[in-house]
Fold this protein.
Amino acid sequence: MPSAYSIFIDFDGTVTENDVGYELFKRFTNSGTEPLVEKYRTGEINSYQCLSGECEIWNACKPSPADIDRFLEAQPVRRGFGQFDYYLHSLNINPIILSEGFDFYIDKFLSHHGLSHLARITNRADYENGRLNPSFPYFGAGCGVCSNCKGYHINKLRPPKMCAIFIGDGHSDRHASRAADIVFARSYLGEIMTKSGAAFVPFDDFAEIMMKMENMFSDGIFAIGERLAFVYFSPRHHDSFRELWGCAEVMKFVGYPNGLGWSSRRYDRHFADMECRTDAIFLAIEDKAGLFLGEAKISFPDRDGCCHHDLKLFPRFWDKSVGFEAWRMILERAGARWPDAKAVVTPSIDNERAIGLYQKLGFQFSGDIETWEPPKEIANAIPVQYRKMVRHQN
Ligand SMILES: [Mg+2]
Ligand SMILES: [Zn+2]
């Protein structure tokens, strides 16, 4: 289901084989910009300060426009990008390039390689007689640190039900890597994500990405964790879902001590309803071999800014820290979409295992014990005493 995906791609060192912006400034300032770039990479200055400073050094050097053009024309595209672009086009997916680089060299590169049709959001620099006059149209809107925050753009452009895929390589991709649901990373970005323990898909070129993406699309992958994958709920999960909701042990703490007890027709109605719902993302949880472990629901915030997510796992996976990882994935994916929302759960006061897990995830009790009374027409349900627990995102 390719229509469920938005794709965002870094430019320098991702679409391009080399880090063109970095090499360009380095070369035409005789490495004069190196100390600034080093300060940026170690976090001493932000990208806005780095890029503004680089332009000043550049202008003092007055490079020749003809030399710059020659340099840019010699820059290769990363292997497989042309086919990748064609592949996405055939699926009706329009990827967006997100870059903290400047339009004057990005546009020239894309046009030279017949890629001018690609959408891009970049910093700008008027370029006249070798002089650069930079402007940063998105600096004020983003995180306040990045000159053109890629995380900001992903959050703004991805419809919440869609999976955002980001492909990148560098320091300026950090916020994108948190906002995106699936990340393809190489080089510095791969190192940063490895250090922070975040899951990503490594790559060398676009032939590799295309192959992996084809599999993700056909499986309906929504997010990838360390050992788990969230997969868009689809008919291939119906039988497992019935088994899960029919399981007494799974349902006893939500008021159904003998399982849900629905008829096949009732389940079918429910599945049809899940497909139409616009206020939640319904996901199957699978291990890396594709085994169904349970289901996750990422809920959109309600009027009070509360997200009522849900997670159900077969009991045989309860004690294998699957629950912790799955909940972390739910909270991260929701947190990326709605940074100001709260997550709310209502565990039965008898469900000590769940309460312990929620506490470990940062949920805190809110209010007193309350009772859920099942409606009279539901014969097989019993009252549940529960307590509300709340966790503020991020
Ligand atoms: Mg890059
Ligand atoms: Zn940012």
